[in-house]
Specification:
There is one protein chain. By secondary structure, the chain is of the alpha/beta class. It folds into two domains: 266 residues, Aminopeptidase (3-Layer(aba) Sandwich); 227 residues, Glycosyltransferase. The strands form three sheets. The chain has a six-stranded mixed sheet with strand order 4-3-5-8-6-7. Strands 1-2 form a two-stranded antiparallel sheet. The longest helix is centred in the last third of the chain and has 20 residues. It is elongated, with a radius of gyration of 25 Å.
């Protein structure tokens, strides 16, 4: 069975603009084969786990993985890694263990007590079918350099990130061997019997410094942005692997995993608690732009929701210079991303009755309007999905708060319907631009935000509203099909191997939650939103720092351009603004549903 499962599963390259027809055919074949292997594992596999890609190699091969469908905080989680040495034999062993796990009655107790995730072939260029290379050297962990920035071999970064974000109780790095030997890291103390013997084989040994297993014990000080993880390396024959792994798990369940405890605790936080964490921290740079504006607006909303005036102090201090004229709210170079900052001035005017702020917001909207007949829909367009939010966020607010002038609503409706005609695919997903014909994650978030803002603020009889609603609903439906097992959406939405990105997930959570609350979407979307919110929470640390926020991005002609945009981990104004907005919308949804 193992050989049958392994063949054809792990070597399929991701489709790219430069791929020829044969490569695309191989990719499509591989994409079908991995789910087929999972279905062969039986009903337990179909019901409890999903197939997804943990990442991409530099050659574009997908690193197929099996993950639980969400995370059960009450059960421990086992993560198996195979092929980290590039050896197809270790991949075959992991697949054999999975077959036993899901189909053998002898594993029924473990199935009931444990969750399992597995990356059977961590180096598909070597351990997959039709390998393109032999592994030149072992990877060193934690991986050096930035994450997903295209400068270094991305495989170890994907292995590291996927493993740590699984919130494992125990990680086992499986290698093919003639005898059973265990190696443990410092966090796994107590799982293996000490000398003179180890479970099922030779004496337990310490893992090698710089190895995957060793580095997981020191994860709190490295690039993992996490905490220590108990991990073992198992050298074993295919015949003995099930017994060895099954024998060690009862003890593993009793050993603390600091990383799992932290991620489970993060995912249990209430939305307002997260909002209270992010609002005082962001923005660090109070410039006139959509990024600070979302934080400013969110902080004002938070102050009103909680009755705590402290949250309004920072945004008022930072916005006042733009209203008073001490700093120009409209300044060269004229960009929609900068003009979008007026959305917060509009909200300030509405929430607190500040006439000067409202007037400044209207001035910003007027500056966006086209100058004369036959001109562009709005001024300063980039023809990217970004425009859908940058312009509409201001125009729609001003339209709702200005009586007797329909120019704002008409312009917003025309922009959204035109961009939907040009950039929205039949499956509902948006490409970023005609010159960037790829489904960039945040690009879809901008489209979702623009459509959401129009539906929120424009009157029911506004021109084009029905088409805007149709486009919004098509996008939300299309995004469901692209959601990762942990609830996240990806840097390139329709590429399973691209990294799970913070801002697109926060933006979709916001747009989808508001749609459920206001009746644009039915109740079937609620579990999708809840799962995405839990995935997002795991990436918001206790100090408000964030994980994998795509850096500022223009339009690029190739998929690699988007895949290689660095994922920022740490404090980030853009991610903080999006996280705060999502938290507030989740709180509103909970209130509407009678939950707290």
């Amino acid at each position: 069975m193992a050989a049958l499962v392994v063949m054809g599963l792990f070597g399929s390259p991701a489709a790219a603009s430069s791929a020829d027809a044969a490569a695309t055919a191989r990719q499509q074949s591989g994409a079908r084969a991995m789910p087929q292997a999972l279905w062969a594992l039986g009903p337990g596999g179909r019901r409890n786990v999903q197939v997804d890609a943990a990442g991409l190699t530099r050659s574009g091969r997908r690193m197929w993985a099996i993950e639980p469908n969400g995370d059960d905080a009450k059960r421990p989680k086992l993560v198996l890694i195979g092929g980290l040495d590039g050896d197809p034999a270790s991949t075959a062993i992991v697949m054999r263990v999975l077959q036993w796990w899901f189909t053998d009655r002898a594993a029924a107790t473990l199935r009931a007590e444990w969750q399992i995730a597995a990356l059977p072939c961590a180096r598909p260029d070597s351990c997959g079918d039709a390998p393109v290379s032999a592994p030149e050297a072992p990877f060193s962990f934690p991986p050096a350099g930035g994450f997903f920035d295209g400068k270094l071999e991305p495989t170890p970064h994907y292995v590291w990130r996927w493993t740590t974000m699984q919130a494992p109780t125990i990680v086992i790095d499986v290698r093919a061997g003639t005898a059973t030997s265990w190696f443990s890291n410092a966090a796994a103390t107590g799982i293996l019997p000490g000398p003179p013997q180890a479970q099922g084989g030779s004496a337990a040994q310490s893992s090698t410094p710089g190895s995957f297993v060793s580095a997981l014990a020191d994860a709190g000080t490295g690039a993992a942005w996490s905490m220590p993880v108990p991990a073992l390396r198992l050298d074993v024959s295919a015949a003995d692997a099930n017994k060895a792994i099954g024998g060690v798990l009862p003890r593993a369940a009793r050993v603390a995993s600091p990383l799992r405890a932290a991620l489970v605790a993060r995912a249990a936080r209430a939305p307002l608690d997260v909002a209270r964490l992010l609002a005082p921290k962001y923005p660090a740079q109070p410039i006139m732009s959509y990024i600070p504006a979302l934080s400013w607006s969110g902080a004002l909303r938070l102050a009103r929701l909680t009755g705590d005036a402290r949250f309004r102090e920072k945004p008022i201090v930072e916005m006042t210079p733009f209203v008073s004229g001490a700093k120009p709210a409209i300044a060269e170079p004229y960009l929609l991303t900068s003009l979008a900052g007026h959305l917060a001035l509009s909200d300030w005017g509405e929430l607190e009755g500040n006439a000067e702020a409202a007037a400044a917001a209207r001035k910003g909207a007027d500056f966006m309007l086209p100058q004369g007949a036959g001109s562009e829909i709005v001024r300063f367009p980039r023809a990217w999905t970004d425009d859908m939010f940058m312009a509409v966020s201001v125009l729609a607010r001003v339209a709702a708060r200005t009586k007797g002038d329909d120019r704002y609503a008409a312009t917003a409706g025309r922009l959204l319907t035109t961009y939907a005609e040009q950039l929205q695919r039949p499956d509902g997903i948006f490409i970023h631009a005609k010159a960037g014909p790829h489904a960039w994650g945040r690009g879809n978030g901008f489209a979702a935000f623009g459509l959401m803002e129009a539906l929120t603020y424009l009157p029911a009889n506004a021109a084009g509203r029905a088409r805007v609603l149709q486009s919004y609903q098509a996008l939300m439906k299309g995004l469901i099909a692209q959601q990762a097992p942990d609830g996240m959406w990806r840097q390139v939405v329709d590429e399973p191997g691209s990294y799970r990105e913070f801002t697109v997930t926060a933006m979709v959570v916001t747009a989808m939650a508001r749609g459920v609350r206001l009746g644009w979407l039915d109740a079937s979307y609620r579990p999708v939103v809840d799962r995405a919110w839990r995935g997002l929470l795991a990436r918001i640390a206790e100090d408000g720092s964030l994980m994998d926020v795509c850096t500022g991005t223009g339009s690029g002609p190739t998929k690699d351009y988007y895949l290689n945009r660095a994922g920022i981990t740490g404090a980030d104004d853009r991610g903080g603004a999006m996280g705060l907005t999502a938290a507030l919308e989740m709180d509103e949804l909970a209130r509407a549903g009678g939950q707290r």
